[in-house]
Design a protein that fits this description.
A hairpin with a 2-residue loop joins β10 and β11. It contains 12 helices and 11 strands. Helix content is 40%, strand content 19%. The chain has helices at 8-14, 28-39, 54-58, 92-97, 99-104, 148-151, 165-178, 189-202, 207-219, 231-246, 258-261, 267-284; strands spanning 18-21, 43-47, 59-63, 70-74, 81-85, 106-114, 117-124, 130-135, 156-159, 249-251, 254-256.
């Protein structure tokens, strides 16, 4: 009914983690559930709360007898589609434990192999892996700030806006019709992996496009010197810097500075994500090359 800004790019492009922002009741959770149903695979939903420990999400080691090797029992993070509702209720300790799964696609556990000996073992997450989290901006009790280290591993922030009266009427009418109808799978895990492989290898990205992405990410860094840039890049950067920092951003009815809008900067990783998402956008538009507008 409403949103064109759904996380399909992550699914078909790079399985990038995303954060959905918006007031309660805007179907953020429903959107992720439906997307998981359309793409098939296993799905898990985690309700964020301060009491959740890292092991409740990642998994735990279990010992069946003294001196015997431990066994790892995977947690809900080992699913193709993982949704954490009210992510800002998760403690910083548990947030830190999520950095490795989101960045590396794996979980490391320190396990006993018997006789007082321990060994680290890594367990790969299933592929494709899609992580989405929602954040409730209204309730300030029992919430934590999402750490910069974790935000650096989240590729996209999607602001889910409110509905007009006409759109609310459409939601109510469609719920009556489709309430009991199950979501039908339209694509499988192998198809998604094939799409991701094609996008990464076959969608061409010219050097000027890569330079453009690097300049965009460099513009929002707290320091602004290009250490080893060539003359052309240096000229483009300085022109863009002057234009961006002298032109206020209009958000709603407010004019704000770029520094006030960008919370966390990610230079190299940010440029890589921008290029990957641009490749996905080109693929969805039926092209095998990336344009600046992607």
């Amino acid at each position: 009914v409403k949103e064109n800004s759904t996380p399909e790019k992550e699914h078909f492009g790079i399985s990038a983690p995303c954060l959905l922002l918006g007031n309660p009741g805007l179907a953020k959770t429903v959107m992720c559930d439906v997307l998981g149903g359309l793409c098939g695979g296993s799905a898990e939903r985690i309700q964020g709360s301060p009491e959740i420990e890292p092991g409740d999400i990642l998994g735990k080691t279990v010992m069946f007898g003294e001196g015997l090797p431990e066994e790892f029992r995977p947690g809900p993070i080992f699913a193709n589609h993982v949704l954490v509702d009210e992510f800002n209720r998760v403690s910083e300790k548990t947030q830190a434990a999520l950095i490795e799964p989101l960045a590396e696609g794996r979980v490391t556990a320190n396990m006993s192999i018997g006789k007082g000996t321990f060994k680290k073992r890594t367990f790969d997450l299933p592929r494709p892996f899609f992580f989405a989290a929602t954040q409730n901006p209204l309730d300030h009790r029992g919430v934590f700030t999402i750490t910069e280290a974790l935000l650096d591993r989240i590729a996209m922030q999607i602001n889910v806006g409110g509905l007009t009266i006409k759109e609310v009427i459409g939601v109510v009418q469609k719920k009556k019709v489709y309430a009991e109808e199950p979501v039908r799978q339209v694509i499988g895990a192998e198809d998604i992996l094939a799409c991701q492989n094609f996008i990464a290898r076959q969608v061409e990205v010219a050097v000027p496009i890569i330079r453009y992405a690097a300049i965009l990410t460099k513009l929002v860094l707290p320091y602004s010197d290009l250490l080893d840039a060539d003359r052309e890049t240096d000229k483009l950067f300085n022109e863009a810097k002057q234009k961006v920092h002298n032109t206020p951003l209009v958000i709603g009815k407010e004019e704000r500075k770029l520094e006030d809008v960008v919370a966390v900067t990610g230079y190299t990783r940010g440029a890589q994500v921008i290029i990957s998402l641009a490749q996905t956008q080109a693929f969805l538009q039926g092209r095998r090359y990336v344009l600046p507008e992607d």
